[in-house]
Amino acid sequence: MQLVLYINMKKLFLLLLGITLFSIIQAKEWLFFVYMAADNGLYQYAIDDINKLEAGIQDNMEIIVFIDHLTGSDKEGAEVLRIVKDTSSRIVSPRVKYYGDVNSGDYRVLNQFMKWGQSHYSGKNEVMIVWSHGTGWFRGEAKHVCPDNDYSSAISVSNGELKKAFHGLRRKFDLLFFDACLMGNMETMVEIKESCNYYMASITEMPAFGLPWVEILNEWNNYTEKIDKYNSIITHYIESYEFGGSHNPHGDYYYSLALFLAQISALEPVLDQLTYFSNTFASDASLPVFSNARNNCLPFNDMQADIEIKQYFELLKESSQYGSGLWDTSDNMLSLLDMLFIKSGSSNLIVNGYASIWYPIYEDVFYEIYIYLYHNLGINQTQFSRFLNYTFGEDTRPPNSIQVLDVSQALNSLYLKWEAPIDPCPLQYQIEVYADGQRVLTDIIENTSFTYTFDHEVQNGKIAICAIDEAGNKSAFNNANYNKKTEQKRIAYISPNPVYDTNTAKIHWLSDHNTSKMEIKLYTISGDLVGTKTLMNLSQGEHVFPLNELIKGDRKLSTGLYTLVLKGDDFMVKIQFAIIC
User: Fold this and answer.
1) CA–CA separation, 328 and 182 (whole Å)
2) 409 pLDDT above the threshold of 90
3) Bridge partners of 566?
4) φ and ψ of 40, to 5 deg
5) Mean pLDDT lowest for which of 15-29, 354-368, 537-551?
6) Three-state SS across 354-389?
7) Which of 356, 464, 533, 579 could form a disulfide with 306 if both were Cys (CB 3.0 to 4.6 A apart)?
8) Strand ranges of the sheet holding 356-358, from the earlier edge strand across to the other edge
9) What pLDDT does 24 receive?
10) In this predicted model, what pLDDT tens digit does every residue of 281-335 receive, in sequence order?
11) CA distances from 562 to 450, 571, 577, 579 (A)
């Protein structure tokens, strides 16, 4: 028995030792994930790049490559390779996972690969490379990034698919690099800003021959600082396509190149400054100082609608037509851009290679694409679309009619909720309430929900609502009918729900008899009591109590779910609601 125990303990020790050694092997200093959506015209270049990675990989690196092979090629389907050192012309890296026939233009496949990779490999520094065709955040009805020809599919930026691809990952990538054309735009960067510390991409097309990975990886460890390693990617890329470079040895082609490295921690100040610029100068956006700067910028991408953001603000700063306010705003923006883009490189271009931003010159193009796609993007929070709207002069286009989502009644209150029309400028809403054919209320509000309390015995009525933009243009009215309910006995609710301002929210309840004592208590979702109130000797009928009088002291309630409990003589009801601050 003792001998058997000794043998088992020895096996256990060896097993644990093996697991430990395996973990050490896995945890390299540098971990690269490469997602090659190559089931398209770039397939042979993907094979070439894998060979480059095999030739350049260093001992302190782990490189994990997903490749979707071209449909009809010798190796169909998708697989994951763990790159090993090899300088031959064939790929020798072993397969560690086989996907089979998948749509690499589906964001869910990219998401699955990254989740799988992070669950099986770890490294001190993680780099994610998205390799394929790219067209920026939008290009007509065609591809965005990672097209799969067999499925006629690609990952959309403007519809939120790229952002979803990076959702739910175990760890944030240190560097996210798009080895794809035209992904160096502010719109895409804002979409994925929560997913990486550094962002690298090109404002323009990237040659199909790719990057000189052998040179990049061979010299990777020559640099002590991480930023210097990242910067070297840009340097080697630009130099490899110059005359005599590894990708242009005979100088027989004239390449226009650009690549930048952005530090995402410096992005928010740039977005704040863009918001300030947009709101300050929107009303004057059609003046020549702005249109001249736009027209003198080098255009990029589909319909030549993208410009380099730095060039635009440099041209604004150079102009003396508007005054010191514009000069100061442009100068501040340029300083912030230089902190965001810690390195950029370009060749055969008149710009530095900083990120682009959408700035169309045709009104119909702007409005249609804004309504169709651009409004979905996170960059809209900067109000830059509002500025663009006024570059075409006075706004005379009324908003679309609103869509009423819900009409409901509780007690003597009617609750109306609607979907805000898509518009590049802030909207208000005009409410008109009719009873007995007479207008009994007119109001202008900014939120997209409205509560009307009956103060009469009218059984039927109508609420009309329209949207008004800041130029005073009104949409057509949309109507919602109501029928007063009188059979309700003991019900309670809070309005509005969700609560955006606790100072204006109210608790409503209805009782069909007198109540000697009513206790009202407010709890967080975890059960913590945050407010209580006792009311005495209440008569039957409808009662209203301000929510803020329930909250203890000067306590401010944060965003979250809450439970309200009302308990009377023989009356108890629970209400769940949300607070959004």
Assistant:
1) 30
2) no
3) 520, 573
4) -165, -165
5) 15-29
6) CCEEECCCCHHHHHHHHHHCHHHCHHHHHCHHHHHH
7) 356
8) 299-300, 306-308, 356-358
9) 40
10) 999 999 999 999 999 999 998 788 999 999 999 999 998 677 789 999 999 999 9
11) 21, 20, 6, 8
Q: In sequence order, what are the residues at sequence separation of 6 or more whose Cβ sits closer than 8 angstroms to the Cβ of residue 423? A: 399, 400, 467, 469
CA distance 211 to 209: 7
d(C-alpha 543, C-alpha 399), whole Å? 38
| Residues ≥6 apart with Cβ < 8 Å to 189 | 199, 201, 262, 264, 267, 355
Question: Mean pLDDT across the stretch 164-187?
Answer: 97
Model pLDDT for residues 468-513, shown as the tens digit of each residue:
999 999 999 998 887 766 555 557 888 887 888 888 888 888 777 7
Average pLDDT of the chain is: 89
For the record, the structure tokens of 237 come out as: 């890329």
Specify the CATH superfamily of domain 395-486: Immunoglobulins (2.60.40.10)
Query: Quick one: tokens of 17?
Result: 């030792």
CA 196/CA 379 separation, integer angstroms = 17
Q: Where are the domains of the chain?
A: 13-201, 268-341+350-390, 395-486, 489-581
Q: Looking at the domain that runs over 489-581, which CATH code has it been given?
A: 2.60.40.3080
Phi and psi (nearest 5°) for 220?
-55, -45
Looking at this protein, which amino acid is placed at residue 555? R
Number of Cβ atoms within 10 Å of the Cβ of 577: 19
How do 541-546 and 529-538 pair as beta strands? unpaired
Is the predicted pLDDT of residue 25 greater than 70, yes or no? no
User: What's the rounded Cα separation, in Å, for the pair 394 and 391?
Assistant: 9
C-alpha–C-alpha distance, residues 317 and 333, integer Å:
10
Q: Can you give the three-state secondary structure of 19-45, one letter per residue?
A: HHHHHHHHCEEEEEEEEECCCCCCHHH
pLDDT at 426 over 70: yes
Architecture of the domain whose range is 13-201: 3-Layer(aba) Sandwich (3.40)
Q: Give the C-alpha separation, 466 to 476, whole Å.
A: 6
In which order are the strands placed within the sheet that holds 196-201? 95-100, 78-82, 61-68, 28-36, 123-131, 173-179, 196-201, 257-263, 341-347
Measured between alpha carbons, how far apart are the two ends of the chain, in Å? Answer: 67
DSSP per residue, 253-311: S---EEEEEEEGGGHHHHHHHHHHHHHHHGGGTTSHHHHHHHHTSPEESGGG-EEEHHH
Q: Tell me, yes or no, if the two domains 13-201 and 489-581 fold the same way.
A: no
